[in-house]
Amino acid sequence: MSEKGLQVLMKRKLLLDLKSLKLDFYKHCMYGKQCKQRFKTGTHNSKEILDYIHSDLWGPSPVVSYGGVLYFLTFIDDFSRKVWVFMLKKKVDVFNVFKQFKAMGEKITGKAIECSRTDNGGE
Fold first, then answer.
1. Is residue 122 situated within a structural domain?
2. Does residue 66 sit in the same domain as residue 26?
3. What is the side-by-side order of every strand in the sheet holding 71-77?
4. Do 113 and 106 touch, CB atoms closer than 8 A?
5. What are the distances in angstroms from CA 16 to CA 11, 12, 32, 62?
C-alpha cells in the first residue's frame, strides 16, 4: 500500500498513528507497481485486398461440435477487414485449407496473396 493510502487510513482512525514512523523506500515495492511496456504499433501498408493476410488457428475445443469440429482457422484481410472462418476436425488439415483459401482468394480477386502473418503458434 502506498504512503498516501496509509495516511487515509490514519485519518479514518482505521490505523494507528504513524506520523512518527518514516516509511522507507523499498525497491521491491516499485518493482511490484511496474507495468509492461506497450508494443510499438505495427504499420501495414496494405493498399489492396490480399496484400496482407492475418491467420490464426484456435483449438482444440474442450467440447466437440455436432459435426465433429475441434478447430477453427481464421483468415483476416488487413485492407478490407474481411474475415473467413474454416472449421476443422483435425489440426493436420490446416495446410490443405490454406491452399483452398489461397486458390479461392486468387480466383475471386485475380491477385496473389502478398504476405501472410501468423502468431507462430506452430500450427
1. no
2. no
3. 83-88, 71-77, 52-58, 115-117
4. yes
5. 10, 10, 25, 52
Q: What gap in Å lies between CA 10 and CA 18, rounded to an integer?
A: 8
What is the mean predicted confidence (pLDDT) over 104-111?
A: 92
d(CA 76, CA 70): 20
Whether residues 66 and 112 share a domain: the answer is: yes
User: Which of 89, 86, 85 is closest to 68 using CA atoms?
Assistant: 89
Which distant-in-sequence residues (6+ apart) come within 8 Å of 72 by Cβ?
A: 57, 58, 59, 85, 86, 87, 88
Structural domain of 18: 3-32
Euclidean distance between CA atoms 13 and 8, whole angstroms: 9
38 is a domain residue:
no
77-100 residue pLDDT tens? 999 999 999 999 999 999 999 999
Number of domains the chain is built from: 2
Q: How many residues does the chain have?
A: 123
For the whole model, what pTM was predicted? Answer: 0.63
